[in-house]
Amino acid sequence: MKIAYFDCFSGISGDMVLGALLDSGLSLASLNAEIAKLGLKDVTIASEATSRHAIAATHAQVRVGGVAVTATEEHHLQLPSEETAGDKHHEHHEHHEHHEHHEHHEHHEHHEHHEHHEHHEHHEHAHGHHRLNDILERIASSDLDSRVK
Questions:
Q1: pTM of the predicted model, to two decimals?
Q2: Where are the domains of the chain?
Q3: Per-residue pLDDT for the chain (149 aa), expressed as one digit of tens each?
Q4: Half-sphere exposure of 48 (CA within 13 A, CB side)
């Protein structure tokens, strides 16, 4: 038996882990077959070869319904059970209003007056925060092999 381990002295992201596993021999078909056992609606992993600063690697990407999910969108994903969870669904709303007022008075020969107003309204609605117990429950109730669970 061969053992491999990650020496992540400064952390590692999920796409980096998946890319490293694919580079080490895990087939994309096998990975997606196991992902399907979690019961996540239309979630797959895609991969492509990439090279940055003369370092070649495999870039793994989460897709939902065939569309790539960006890092900022990942925390908005809902598990299928959350779509109908009703009162148990955790909802988080943030409302930020930023009002900036800048006045610049310049005194030159022909007296200029410049007034600048910026109004920013930012509304963020995040759904899909998953607690560890929710994730462990999903894994326990999945079709994954008992050795994996």
A1: 0.59
A2: 12-69+128-149
A3: 888 888 888 999 999 999 999 999 999 999 999 999 999 999 999 999 999 999 999 999 999 999 998 765 555 555 555 444 444 444 444 444 444 444 444 444 544 544 444 444 443 434 456 799 999 999 999 999 999 99
A4: 7
The structure tokens listed for 112 are 């200029």
35 HSE (CA, 13 A, CB side): 18
3-state secondary structure of 25: coil
**Residue with token string 């007296």:** 111
The residues near 104 (Cβ < 8 Å, ≥ 6 apart) are 114, 115, 116
Angle at 78 between CA 92 and CA 83, to 5 degrees: 90
- As a whole number of angstroms, the distance between CA 86 and CA 3 comes to 44
Going from the C-alpha of 118 to that of each of 95, 99, 112, 113, the distances in angstroms are 17, 6, 20, 17
Q: Could you tell me which residues are beta bridge partners of residue 61?
A: 46
Q: Which two tokens stand for residue 47?
A: 């991969």
Q: How many CB atoms lie within 10 A of CB 22?
A: 19
